[in-house]
Amino acid sequence: MTTIRTPEPRPAEPAAPAIAPSPDETAWRRRHLLDLDDFGAEEIELLMTTTDAMKEVLAREVPRVPALRGSTIITLFYENSTRTRSSFELAGKVLGADVINVAASSSSVTKGESLVDTVKTLQAIGADVIIMRHGRSGAPYLAARHAVCSIVNAGDGLHAHPTQALLDLYTMRARLGDVRGRKVVIVGDVLHSRVARSDMWLLTSLGAEVVVCAPPTLIPQGLAGAGEGQLPPVRVETDLDVAVRDADVVMALRMQNERMTGGFVPGVREYSRLYQVNAGRLARAKPAAFVMHPGPMNEGIEISHEVAHGLQSQVEEQVANGVAVRMAVLWLITRVGGRSRT
Amino acid sequence: MSERLVIRGGRVIDPARRLDEIADVLVEDGQIVEVARGVAGDGAREIDARGLVVAPGFVDVHTHLRDPGLEYKEDIASGTRAAARGGFTTVCAMPNTQPAMDNRATVEYVLRKAAGEAIVRVLPIGAVSKDRAGRALAELGDLAETGCIGFSDDGAPVGDATLMRRALEYASAFGLPVIDHCEEPSLSHDAVMHEGWVATRLGLRGAPAAAESSMVERDVALAAATGGHVHIAHVSTRAAVDAVRRAKARGVQVTAEVTPHHLTLTDETVAFGARGGDALLYDTDAKVNPPLRPQDDVDACIDGLADGTIDCVATDHAPHALIEKLCEFDEAAFGISGLETAFGLCMRLVHAGRLDLATLVERMTIGPVRALGLDRAVPGIGTLATGAPADVVLVDPDAQWLVEPERFASKGKNTPLAGVTLRGAVIATIAAGRLVFESEAELV
Amino acid sequence: MSPVIAMSRDDIRRAVTRIAHEIVEHNRGTQDLVFVGMRTRGVPLAQRIAMAIAGFEGEEVPVGSLDVGLYRDDLTERGPAVNIQPSDLPEIAGKRVVLVDDVLYTGRTVRAALDALIDYGRPRRIQLAVLIDRGHRELPIRADFVGKNIPTSPADDVRVRLYETDGDEYVHVAAAEGAEVAP
Known about the structure:
The complex is a heterotrimer.
Chain A: H1 41-58, E1 72-77, H2 82-94, E2 98-103, H3 107-111, H4 115-124, E3 129-134, H5 139-145, E4 150-156, H6 162-176, E5 183-187, H7 194-205, E6 209-213, E7 235-237, H8 240-243, E8 249-252, H9 257-261, H10 268-275, H11 279-282, E9 290-292, H12 305-308, H13 315-333
Parallel strand pairs in A: 1-2, 1-3, 3-4, 5-6, 5-8, 6-7, 8-9
Helix pairs in contact in A: 1-13, 2-13, 6-7, 6-13
Chain B: E1 5-14, E2 19-28, E3 31-36, E4 45-48, E5 53-56, E6 58-63, H1 76-85, E7 88-93, H2 104-117, E8 121-124, H3 140-146, E9 151-152, H4 161-172, E10 178-180, H5 185-188, E11 193-194, H6 197-202, E12 206-207, H7 209-226, E13 230-232, H8 238-249, E14 254-258, H9 260-264, H10 268-272, H11 295-307, E15 312-313, H12 342-351, H13 357-364, H14 366-372, E16 392-402, E17 421-431, E18 434-438
Parallel strand pairs in B: 1-4, 1-5, 6-7, 7-8, 9-10, 10-13, 11-12, 13-14, 14-15
Antiparallel strand pairs in B: 1-2, 2-3, 5-16, 16-17, 17-18
Helix pairs in contact in B: 4-7, 7-8, 8-11
Chain C: E1 4-7, H1 9-26, E2 33-38, H2 42-57, E3 63-66, E4 96-104, H3 108-120, E5 125-133, E6 145-149, E7 157-161, H4 163-166, E8 170-174
Parallel strand pairs in C: 2-3, 2-4, 4-5, 5-6
Antiparallel strand pairs in C: 1-8, 7-8
Helix pairs in contact in C: 1-2
């Protein structure tokens, strides 16, 4: 059992470091997480390595650390989302924070307290972080402009869902290593998908080849023709059979019922015939390709049951990675500003 | 009430008479007496206008005074003070008040209140339909008799094509225009800005340009068919400008206006603000209907204004309370408080060489008067002709000033231009012979 | 002021070797011994100690790495340095754990490490080995094995550089402007 090695004599002259100098100086200056459209590669890398550390915490027998002990995190959800809210709640609790859930019905937007007043009230009762889900695009930006505490966007209208995109990226990297040069196909209701918007920004900023695929009625205006820096540089393809060719990742988006009745597509039958991610289509992708879905899935509509639960599905990994990514986000944003507690 | 005034040594631009020269303007008893070099003062109060441009007072054919009913946003006193600060001596009050100006009594209330509180002339616009509901015609004859200078359901289009047809036919009996806010609701529903890459970036619902132009085309067709006069409010798209241009060439009785903001700001203002930058602002103060459009549409509007396709500049002054803008973008009210920045903003076109100063003055004075036939109600309005009302504005085309909404006379502080420096300032405004506004900058 | 070299690379090598011998002697062998290096520079130091022991004892002592970022109580003073990495620990329940770090100063990092270790299991015993003890403890913590005691002023900058992490090897002490180095 013993392999005896003598201590290596050190070279007389310093050699190049075997390990890069520790990146203690990596700056993180964001107090809020609103979207990923202005993230640099270094920040994304920091988020990913921090997520690695959080995965290790979650793997422990007693997954709890005192990192945010004494901090108060409030989830303020104007839209129901058990998955996202519980994921954030767990993330906060694992880090030792007190987590309070505030359910704000969307009707209170119009008849009750204004968003700015709500944010100020929650701040006054001691919130260090407000995690906000809101049906209106840009609402977290409004909150952040008037907040001393940190604001985390847990999904705003049709605009952005940054933590979902980060967990998507984390899940992809776990399988692919680097996403640079990889082909990611996002198929479905891109027009109404904040997940797709954040995914497009994040993946293209890291050099992935992103193809969005949907009927033309569900492609946002200006997506293909926008100037540099205005929108993420993605390719638009309306034929899914063409789009999936040689893909590394196929991501199906949820097709909501009201879109079916809202005249965007003729109906479920035709939509699923033309745009469902199923085994036949997946066979056109690379052999090692895998399938993702931000959930909740409409099995049999945008994704077939066999693919959703097949060997190529990473859907459960996405959910599992969600907690770690959100821990990383909470940890990083609370390093900056906020209440001083020395 | 009115003084004897001599405005000395300014560059007098009176487009109605193609006048552009250094001259003095003598005003007495609320009327223009003489425009000439070296007029005798005879003890009149002297205003030194050397280095300034002297023009007829500006005329705004599209102003929301919010009075009666929405006085928390604006009232006749504050709105006309804002007008005076913007160089306007006449404002046409839109009827989307509460109650709407769809009946004689409400219009009389406005005129009575204006007589007591307004510091510039207020000309009412009556509603096209009862309660502005778009179903049945309001009593247009009564409204015409009461002094309305046109009819509009502005804020909303006259959506029903038959109602629009009847309105054009019926209004033609009084020689008055129907002013239409052109927006096809089945195309624009739920939209909060222009449809394009900016809306996609922000995740906001956009209205396509066709929502405007398709209804302009409809209105033009109805005006042609009825012989009525349609005035297209706040044109904002290339397709709409083209439609008006073609209609005018065919001899259709159509006129059009454009706002200062549609001439100068693009839909990117919603995302990044009027001062630019990278951070997303979701600037609710740039939320307006029709929405701010891309540069190509802005260019078409400028060209249309320059070549006369668009008859006039109109502010669409739409004041709102702070709380109506300090909210989620989707929830925010549409509109820009525009009276006090109109001239400075439009001067951007002059400084950029897109429009000459005399043309801009034309489009803010005699242009709107002719478009809506306002001189039938107020003879001489929009000119400095002898006997015309003594409505005069003094402007400095090069003076720079910082837009500070908190200093607005309007109750509506809602402008995307806060913190922006404009080049071109109103120095003094004389309405009916009275000095109603004088810039803090030293005059004499 | 120009920094003073407090330890050369040979000094560091000798100190590591001595600590290795002391640990074996103190624990009467390597039975149940586990080394836990504290990130960043405690990790290579722990590996070197283990290698030294392998050299003279012929026994391999498991080495783990511990990141205490999530356990610190002085974060608000640290500014935006936020890097944390996964900890990688062998089984520690019932073991004799030797925590290894480069510099012992206020003791707060060690306090955080003790909290962290206990979250992973219940060691039989925890000992502490450091390359430098610079004094100024704020907690009742002491090292069991010390490479060198270096008296400092709190304002001094003690800089440890190791090949594995920094590509160079020395310990510098730079006295703060106007501060006196304690005798």
